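Hi Y.,

Following your request, here is the sequence exactly as I used it, all 163 residues.
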Amino acid sequence: MTIHDCLKFAEKSLRESGIESFEYDAQELLSYCLNIPRLNLLINKNLEVNQDCYKRFIQLSELRATRVPLQHITNHSDFYGLDLYIDKNVLIPRFETELLCEKAIEIINNKELFVLDLCTGSGCIAIAIAKHCPNAKVTAIDISYDAIKIAEENAKRNSVNIK
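Below is the corresponding structure, written out as tokens. Let me know if you'd prefer a different format.
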């Protein structure tokens, strides 16, 4: 089965399941399974997909068809230029939250301020502020131990120092 065939199969299945972003989701899942950038799928659409990868791709597509969020399947979210690990223990960062970060970064700028991110979850807000406002001292807290571990991992992943 080629990359093109895999994508068409998953797109049809996801579309029939009511997934509005069926094309994007199919591409994300296949690039995740193949461990290649999404753009490479389009460039290499006639490349054969090995049987193990195909089986995994079908499993993940079926999971997505049941409305499991894409970010929970791939454990990944892009947020404000950051690479974040995401799982069921934290909320998926939303575009509206990027707007909040943009405004906070604009206000903080290069000032030496203390910033507290309550209920940090994945740490996306704290990490974005720490990344773009190096003079700020950022602290992130959450009641969930699992969320704190994810936020710590995301801070390391994005090379920022957060307390």
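The chain has a mean pLDDT of 95.

Thanks again,
Q.
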